[in-house]
Amino acid sequence: MFRGVPFAAPPTGDMRWRAPREHQARPGLQKATEFAPACMQGQHIVDWYTDVAEAFGHGPEVVGHPSGVSEDCLYLNIWTPELSAEANLPVMVYVHGGSNKGGWSYEPNYLGGRLAGRGAVVVSIAYRLGPLGFFSHPALENNAGEPVANFGLLDIEQAFRWINQNIRNFGGDPNNLTGFGESAGAANLLTLALATDDESGLFRRVIAQSTGGSMSKLQSLAKEQANGQTMLSYFDLGPDVSIEALQSLSAAELLDAAEERLPGHYYAPVIDGDLIQATPLQSLREGSGSKLEVLIGTNADEWLMYLEPDSGTEQLEKWIMETAPEFAGSLLALAAEESSPRKALDKLETASNMLCPSRLIAATVTGQGGQAYLYYFTRQRPGEGGNTLGVYHGAELPYVFDQHDSWLPVDEVDQQVTQTVMDYWLAFARNGSPDSPGHPGWPVYTSSQRFVMELGENSKIFQAGDTALCRYLGPVR
User: Fold this and answer.
1) From 99, 183, 214, 352, the catalytic residue
2) Which domain, by its residues, includes 199?
3) Is residue 72 included in any domain, yes or no?
4) Which parts of the chain have pLDDT scores under 50?
5) 183 is catalytic
6) What is the pLDDT of residue 477?
7) pTM for the whole thing?
8) What CATH number is given to the structural domain containing 150?
9) Which of 38, 115, 280, 420 has the fewest C-beta atoms under 10 angstroms from its C-beta?
10) Closest Cα partner for 303 from 119, 71, 473?
11) pLDDT over 70 for what percent of the chain?
12) Per the domain annotation, does 432 fall within a domain?
């Protein structure tokens, strides 16, 4: 295990809001025994873990924290079973989620030792977040040739370049990289795979867990620059502020400004005309999926934990009228089949934001000559916590890494699901197909043969039958 390995120069001082530069080697033997600070962020992810722990009957003291936060944060971690350059092991590069404003590369559920012990090199990476990674402002255009947005994405790209150039020294095959991520991390990987000109092929193979909705909704650069101006109104710097003045502000103050001036803002990549020319969905329609290998899927109750416990018919009807009023009657009829309005709202939100976009991506990739495989994760934790949260957003992660928090209930079924998920993920990383001996075969997903792998107490293939739901709520309606 190698902790805190730098893959880029510190993005501080006059390097803030610039493309990442290559790390300059330091003389002598370097220690790689401690995790680096996380990228600048607030309590967003710690609070998320605290809420999950509380549902399972535990207090905040059981929740892990990063080793501090810093603007100097572009480091990665490597777990490998074999250091020989001849080992040629598949390489799995994990990109964490957290709404692009929180998260760190060594959260307890992401520690890669057990996954690597099954025969892969596992790498977890950091990238700039929030107003330092997903921000723009007219002042950034002062320096010709520099990007003016998408700095977090550029960090991910730089990390993959570093891995491609150096991973052979850690036993990995630089020509066999699989990017895998969850939520915003998965969306970032798909954006790089679909909406950029990836001539290097670094993002050819992707595992995308619980994502999809942002594939058709990227903001324009002009909108992002307007958001930047709104955020910086916190400082009263005037309209002609220079890039140097912005770079002199403290990172902590920038977080404060973002929280006050842009509450609830979702930090996402933007169409900047440089790194990203179009939305991933637009690029996919134009054929960008033809060379990809994608494993993508959704948990059963992605949205349940984010809905108020008293969500009822009023909230359900309001969401339908705001989202797809032309299909209100049909959606209400489908909702009536659920056990409660809250469960119905969870089903519709999950379908709109993740399940239906994932199906469209999978079908289009396969239709263009690529390979795509779809899963549906259904394992609910035993006990009251499982009843409260269902199969929640992020529930699959401990199974992928075999890193179940000590405060999560784990029984024999959970151990069996863990082995199944790990076997499928590792097979996909080795071969671009998740087929694994001892488990049900996993056919590709196509528009006519909608084969989905249920990953749960009894993992099995089924054909998706709820196609009407995606006609009403999918990205293309």
Assistant:
1) 183
2) 2-288
3) yes
4) 477
5) yes
6) 43
7) 0.97
8) 3.40.50.1820
9) 420
10) 473
11) 99
12) no
